Amino acid sequence: MAEELILNRYRPLEEAGAGGYGTVVVAWDPRIQRRVAIKMLHIDPSLIPAPTSDAGTYDISSIPGLEEARTAALLNDPNIVGVLDFEIEGATAYLIMEYVDGCTLTQLMHNYPDEITPEIVGAVFKSVAHALQVAHENQVLHLDIKPDNVLITRQGDVKVTDFGLSKLSNKEGFDKAAGGTIGYMPLEQMALQTLDVRCDEWALASLTYEMIARSNPFFAEDLKGAKRAIDEAELVLPSLCMEGISSEADDVLFYALAPDREERYATVADFAEELQPFLGNPKTGKRQLARLVGAATDDAEETELAPAEVSALDRANPRSARLLMRLWSVINCAIVGALGLSCMHPWIGDVQGLLFWGLLALVIVAAAIIPHLGALIAVAIFSLALVAQGAYLAGAVLLVADALWWFFSGRHSFEAACASLSIAPLGLLGLGATTPMLCGYFLHVKDAIMGAVFAAVLALALAGSAATGLTNWDMLPVWASADLATHNSLGFEAIRGILATPGLWIDLITWIAAAAVMAALCSRANRMLGFIGALVAGAILLLGASIMPEAIDFVRALVPLVVGGVLCIYGVPIRRD
Fold first, then answer.
1. Cα angle for residues 191, 193, 197 (degrees, 5° grid)
2. Can you tell me the distance from the alpha carbon of 559 to that of 432, in angstroms, rounded to the nearest whole number?
3. pLDDT at residue 206 above 90?
4. Are 374 and 329 in contact (CB under 8 A)?
5. pTM of the entire structure?
6. Residue 241 to residue 73: CA distance in whole angstroms
7. Do 458 and 426 touch, CB atoms closer than 8 A?
8. Backbone angles phi, psi at 153, to 5 degrees
9. Which residue among 192, 219, 285, 337 is least enclosed by CB atoms within 10 Å?
10. Which helix (H) or strand (E) holds 502?
11. Is residue 417 over pLDDT 60?
12. For position 465, what pLDDT does the model report?
């Protein structure tokens, strides 16, 4: 028997969810050849008017809330889920909406609680606030802002759904309130008072607080408990709940969560203007959302990402992964910082001095707490060491490179800081060429290229007296004599000779190419593509090394290829921003 069509038109594909208002079904519209989302709303039979004709059509203008829903259907904004049609059949209202390929904010907070960053909070808040402003300008209240009604696409776009529908239903679970959900309803909504835009403002503040604090303090079993929870709430300062949220956001959120609406901001626009500057960057948050949604949902065009497809770092407990990154950062920064400080004796004295160990401890602590800050400080110290030893141009160039790399790439992720500064320990082992492979494995293409170039500049500064291109350096002679002027290859006379060496430029070109190829093929989070990327990137590095046969050590030259291949066998990381 042929599958029954919805409204004699839409072919149901799957049920997308169910809630207090009814069921949401994903269906295929053969007329416009695209997917749609159909929300089937259960309407109180007593509200349905008698048919106005023998054909069974209704005068539905008398149904409470319908005019508001119709107005919401006219709202055209990227942050609002579009309403395509509205029909009633029997005791069910069918709302035909655009299909959003993604997931709800509820799913995201439930599946990735440790991945919600200040940037994500900033992106969601900005989009939801904008959607509410558009609706309020058109005299539409939402009255049910909650994570379930915030949808996020695979591109990281945030869309609010169910505008103007809260009056269409009084399903069990909402008690006597005119729509709304406990935990996101202010007191006036529960008291059935006349509502205004400050009702949506309170709900947005509650949702934002929940994203930051990872819990909603206003949840309760019933309306009586909900009222008591609002009146007696002891809220933790949001800035203490999430690193990166400014303390100035605390008063703004509490102001919008005031039980008395007369004490809140007059409009959502005023609330957003006050709070947005104290949250994370929305553009960065959008990229982070795209990554999370891609990991949380099935891709209609690709095979679902299996657990083995992503790296062990992503599968690990987030705290364990962060701890590993911090340990990696400490090793990198301790080597660079110690060498730099040992050569700053004209300014700070010898390595036995208290100032030396105090500054080195500062570098290590910074690297452990915030890896990219530790990297910035360690390389800055080494740059100043060059200046202290008389290599003024070299010190200035490295310092500028350090600042540019940190601002445009390094500060955005732990991985960026750790991968680039890996040149320090790897170069000691003669395996510096593995650094661009690590940059490509962990970073986006742009960041991988920037990381490889910065690593090359740092490698040149670290090269020392035993330099052969960018791949290795020898710390011991420099450490023993504490004299960069003698051993460092960036002396004025030596630098001209190194820059004139074809091997240096061959290394630089192959590093950039290898990092870009590895990053591009790892970007799909597919283990096989990542492995192919490791093979191609390794071949590029090997080719570059073979051009200078007098300097090549084939065993060491093969290490980047092996390292990249092994890493991809154990999975490809989901890119972080």
1. 115
2. 10
3. yes
4. yes
5. 0.52
6. 38
7. no
8. -85, 175
9. 192
10. helix 502-522
11. yes
12. 37
